[in-house]
Specification:
Elements lengths: L4 E3 L5 E6 L41 E7 L2 E3 L3 E9 L11 E6 L5 E3 L2 E3 L4 E8 L4 E9 L2 E10 L3 E10 L2 E3 L8 E10 L21
Parallel strand pairs: 2-14, 4-11
Antiparallel strand pairs: 1-13, 3-5, 5-9, 6-8, 6-10, 7-9, 10-11, 12-14
């Protein structure tokens, strides 16, 4: 039999390796179970020191988030309602400071002032799925609310490399295995982890 060389797409034996920062290699049934998980715990929270033109008389701060579920790199509006010891809205212009309990999940507007007892901020998620807790502080009063951050579904598979990129027919003495690498991306063009990918051989005589 004459030795023939085929591009990797016609290989009789393939090892396909999918990676996204990389995520592993194996058969079509293999799956990496942990999709990155929640970021590691962070040190104790530090409340930013901001100028407060009006001394806060807040006795309570209640936080709400809208929407309560967003995708990674999405945004949500955080509303803090501050009331005094008589359950009345605090004076307009009272400062509310906002902080994300675990900064790995995203950022939030550092502070804003009240109008009719409420102050708003914007939370911007990082590329880390999980649950972010946002804390609001006014004077000695604090409150918190949570927002769920979801991973964006896979949107594209990007070919990365083949090594080697030329192989021989089985039994002809040449290299018969090519390692293929692909990258799975979400709609934000971020690599994804833990995605199950099925590989199908297309070409003359199968593979």
């Amino acid at each position: 039999m004459k030795k023939g060389h085929f591009r990797y797409g016609l290989a009789l034996v393939l090892i396909a390796c999918l990676f996204a920062f990389p995520i592993g290699c194996g058969s079509p049934s293999d799956r990496v179970e942990d999709g990155g998980g929640e970021p590691e715990p962070t040190p104790p929270i530090e409340i930013p020191d901001v100028e407060e033109p009006i001394e806060s008389e807040a006795d309570s701060v209640n936080l709400s988030v809208d929407p309560t579920t967003i995708n990674v790199e999405g945004t949500a509006t955080v509303t803090a309602t501050a009331r005094d010891s008589d359950n009345n809205p605090v004076e307009d212009g009272t400062t509310v400071v906002f902080v994300v309990e675990n900064p790995a999940f995203g950022t939030v507007t550092e502070s804003s002032t009240t109008s009719a007892g409420s102050a708003t901020a914007t939370f911007t998620a990082a590329n880390s799925p999980g649950t972010a807790t946002i804390i609001g502080v006014s004077g000695s009063a604090t409150g918190n609310a949570s927002v769920d951050i979801l991973q964006v579904p896979a949107a594209a598979i990007q070919f990365v490399s083949a090594n080697p990129d030329v192989i021989a027919l089985a039994g002809t003495g040449g290299a018969e295995i090519s390692e293929l690498q692909f990258r799975v991306l979400d709609s934000n063009n971020n690599p994804l982890e833990g995605i199950n990918v099925t590989f199908t051989m297309v070409g003359p005589n199968g593979g």
